[in-house]
Structure formats: C-alpha cells, structure tokens
Amino acid sequence: MSTFPWIAITIGLLIVGLLVGFTVFYRKRKEGMEPDYRTFFTMGIIFLPLGIASENYAFFIMSMVFIAIGLLNRSKWKDEP
C-alpha cells in the first residue's frame, strides 16, 4: 500500500486544523491588526524566483498574488522605523 495518500491526508488535516485554530484565535481578539502590505510585496518578490527556478507553479501564482496585494494597497504601506 502506498504511503503517499496517508501523508497527503495527514498534511491536509494539519493545515485545516491550523487554519481553524488561527481563525478562532483572531476572532477572539478585541482589537484588529492592520496587515503590513509591504510585507506581502516582499514575500511575493521572494517567492517569484523560487517559483520560476523550481518550475513550481504554486509558488509562482502565490508570488503574483502577494505582489498584487502589496501593490494594490501601496498607499497603506507602513513606514519602517
């Protein structure tokens, strides 16, 4: 029997569990935090060459999404200290 399906199912359940945990944690917080959109842009720039070099389209698409989110909210970028 192949171990791949069990590993994929375990990783999927772990990701879903973490997402549910983070969602509950952030909904319980009273004050909301504004995301730092410059960080999204930076993460996109970092993932872009990784996705191109490894020919992994998931990283490439994720980098494009992060870059788009960062650039669309450029007016909300926080100043660095």
Any overview of this molecule?
This protein has 81 residues and is mostly helical. The protein has two domains: 1-33; 34-81, no CATH class. Helix content is 72%, strand content 0%.
Q: What class do helices, strands and sheet pairing give?
A: mainly alpha
What is the count of DSSP helices, taking H or I runs of 4+ residues?
3
- The coarse silhouette is flat
Proportion of beta-strand residues: under 5%
Alpha-carbon distance between the termini? 55 Å
Major sheet summary line: none
How many structural domains in the coordinates? 2
How many extended strands?
0
Order of helices and strands: HHH
Fraction of residues in helices? Answer: over 70%
- Low-confidence stretches are none
Q: Round the mean pLDDT to the nearest integer and report it.
A: 81
User: Which radius of gyration do the C-alpha atoms yield?
Assistant: 17 Å
Element layout with pairings:
Layout: H1 4-28, H2 37-53, H3 57-72
Keywords, please?
mainly alpha; 81 residues; single chain
Structure summarized in a few sentences:
The chain has helices at 4-28, 37-53, 57-72. By secondary structure, the chain is mainly α.
